[in-house]
Amino acid sequence: MCTVCGCGEDEARIEGQAHAHDHHHAHDHDRDHHEHDHGHSHEQGRHPSHDHEHRHSHDHAHPHDHHDHSDGAGNDLHFGQGPARAHVPGMSQERMVQIEQDILGKNDRYAAANRQHFAEHGLFVLNLVSSPGSGKTTLLTQTIERLKERVAIGVIEGDQQTSNDADRIRATGVPAVQINTGKGCHLDAHMVGHALERLNLRDDGLLLVENVGNLVCPAAFDLGEHHKVAILSVTEGEDKPLKYPDMFHAADLMLLNKVDLLPYLDFDVTRCIEYAQRVNPDIQVLQVSATAGTGMEAWVAWIEAGMQRATRQKSGIVDKLQQRITELEHRLATLQSKSNESA
Fold first, then answer.
1. Which residues, including other chains, have CB under 8 Å from residue 178's CB and lie 6 or more apart?
2. For a Cys-Cys bond, which of 30, 69, 114, 219 suits 247, CB 3.0-4.6 Å?
């Protein structure tokens, strides 16, 4: 939905400082140049030319065309039909698709720059997504406690307001940067690029991104991460994967959290996993309890295997660059030799 309405644009703050810009320019994220544009402000009577909407009232009636939103299931209504898979009053499906393509296209360019940075520095990056109350921050702190003595870790925290979760991460001794999104319901790649500049995380480390608690909008935004990890607690109901399929389709791993509470709940683990795999046949599932420690060894091993792959990827990039340098040095020597012979 936010890919259509652009909610929260210019609302984000990183460590309490405004993230918005009122001009069009290019800047770099650790030498990665990202071009971006934002809305212009009207200051001191200057009104630069640009597109914007005017809201005004009418004193006459408009006809209202109520489209058919029935999904064929009796009295049920479905506003996710059509090519945009969303509904905005007064906006056509074609216009919604165009706006979504514009927003996601811009985000994807930032994500590509982030991804290149992660690869060249051997950083393994996870985008942790869930609904509020899944136990995501507790899972993070317990993960950090198990890894921090042997792994360089940095955390980017996303919330609409407060730095409470970042404070909990910092209490573990690991650096964290808080991004407040204001009205926004997700992190985007541009925000993450700026937060990364502040972390100064060393090579071959682990970057954990705790996205805003929301099982809808973060699914659409690529941050350049290696994997989206969906965290679902057993207190939420086993049909969440069917209710919010985009998120579980985008995730490579589902952590079924709080399994220590299963004896006290009516929650069908087998059915939940079947629902997740119905949405995404390739999704992996680990059952964990961050507070009791159940399954945490498997989760940590999964992370360490990913970090090893990221390190090997960086080594491959270094080898290719070294090979290219050797080829260019050989070519230069050949040209210089021919030049000397003809002199």
1. 14, 15, 16, 157, 159, 163, 165, 166
2. 219
3-state secondary structure 318-338: HHHHHHHHHHHHHHHHHHHHH
Classify residue 82 by its DSSP letter: S
Residue 201 DSSP code: P
275/14 Cα distance (integer angstroms): 37
The answer to whether 52 touches 46, Cβ cutoff 8 Å, is: no
Residue 34 has a pLDDT of 47
287 sits in which H/E element: strand 284-287
pLDDT in tens, 162-189: 888 889 999 999 999 999 888 788 899 9
**Nearest alpha-carbon partner for 241 in 279, 289, 201, 287:** 279
What confidence tens digit (pLDDT) does each residue in 232-256 have? 999 999 999 999 999 999 999 999 9
At 49 the three-state DSSP class reads: coil
Amino acid at 123: L
The rounded distance, in Å, linking the Cα atoms of 204 and 197 is 16
